[in-house]
Write a structure and sequence with these properties.
Blueprint: E1 27-33, H1 39-48, E2 52-54, H2 62-69, E3 76-80, H3 92-101, E4 106-112, H4 115-125, H5 137-147, H6 149-153, E5 157-160, H7 166-177, E6 185-192, E7 203-206, H8 227-234, H9 239-259, E8 264-271, H10 277-290, E9 295-300
Parallel strand pairs: 1-3, 1-4, 2-3, 4-5, 6-8, 6-9, 7-8
Length: 305
């Protein structure tokens, strides 16, 4: 009779799962740190930057998730792992070591804040600390800090959020993972005022001052996407000057949106019916803005109405 090999386990006693080494080596970021220090906000920043983000993931599942995501050579995975995982959390270091052995290094980002700041945030949110149990809030924070001491010492990035607002935190997290500023998405939407203004528009542009192709029989059945209508509208007095001037003015405002953590802006361009003038001007404005540093999408809500 031969003795069976003892199962390989993590420090918690849970068995180590087996997973295939991914064909690609995805970029892996583990977000952890003190409760109330900004993990959720940091995860949202990474999601805005195109990372695949998973919240409250048991560390033991990280290997399988990496193997699945690793089928995409450009994949970037961020996992939020923290003390909410209970006994699962104590295996985090062993899981990180397992990934490294398989050639998948994982960076560790640790969010921290002073005890006074954390107390203030929990009191403002009116919720208990996950380790408070039947004790005080500060006792819960102290328990968590003790549990995280070893993990903190292994962190590749430690961010103290005690004196940071959400915009400053975004800038720091972005700077840790990329040298590029996330693109600002500008949606230029044509519409007809008779059908109501778009409720999600940040800016409204009224182009009813331009000559109306509706009163030209040959142009009436066409839309602002047709060259004949486009040329007619842009030949109207002041049309090209309006597009150039508005693009110049709005570009200054759009640049400032990046500093205020806003990544999408909608500009509504309206005429009476949303078929001729607004369509042609929206297309022209979209081209002007796309020639700058913005990601632009042009849509026409009422063109077929």
């Amino acid at each position: 009779m031969t003795d069976e090999a003892a199962p390989v386990t993590y420090p918690s006693g849970l068995p180590k799962p087996t997973f295939e080494t991914p064909p690609a080596r995805p970029e892996v970021m583990i977000l952890t740190g003190m409760s109330g220090a900004g993990r959720t906000r940091a995860a949202a920043v990474l999601a805005d930057l195109g990372w695949y983000v998973v919240d409250n993931l048991p560390p033991q599942m990280l290997g399988s998730l990496v193997a699945m995501v690793g089928r995409d050579p450009s994949a970037r995975l961020a996992a939020v792992v923290d003390v909410r995982g209970g006994q699962f959390f104590q295996d985090l270091e062993a899981v990180i070591d397992d990934l490294a052995e398989r050639g998948v290094p994982a960076r560790l980002m640790f969010l921290d804040a002073s005890d006074a700041t954390l107390v203030a945030r929990f009191e403002e949110a009116r919720r208990p600390h996950p380790l408070q149990v039947d004790g005080t809030l500060l006792e819960g924070i102290e328990r968590e800090r003790a549990l995280l001491e070893r993990v903190r010492s292994r962190a590749d990035h430690i961010i103290d959020t005690s004196h940071l607002n959400v915009h400053q935190l975004r800038d720091i997290v972005t700077g840790e993972v990329t040298d590029e500023e996330p693109p600002l998405h500008v949606n230029v939407m044509s519409f007809g005022f008779k059908n109501g203004s778009p409720p999600d528009a940040d800016y409204l542009v009224d182009v009813r001052f331009l000559d109306n192709p509706h009163w030209v029989p040959d142009l009436r059945p066409l839309t602002g996407l047709d060259p004949a209508v486009r040329d007619y509208v842009l030949a109207s007095e002041g049309a090209r000057e309006f597009v150039d001037g508005y693009a110049e003015v709005i570009s200054g405002a759009l640049e400032r949106y990046r500093a205020h953590d806003k990544h999408s802006v909608t500009i509504g361009v309206g005429c009476t019916g949303g078929k001729h003038r607004s369509v042609a001007i929206a297309e022209a404005l979209g081209r002007r803005l796309a020639s700058r540093t913005f990601t632009v999408r042009v849509t026409h809500r009422d063109r077929e109405k």
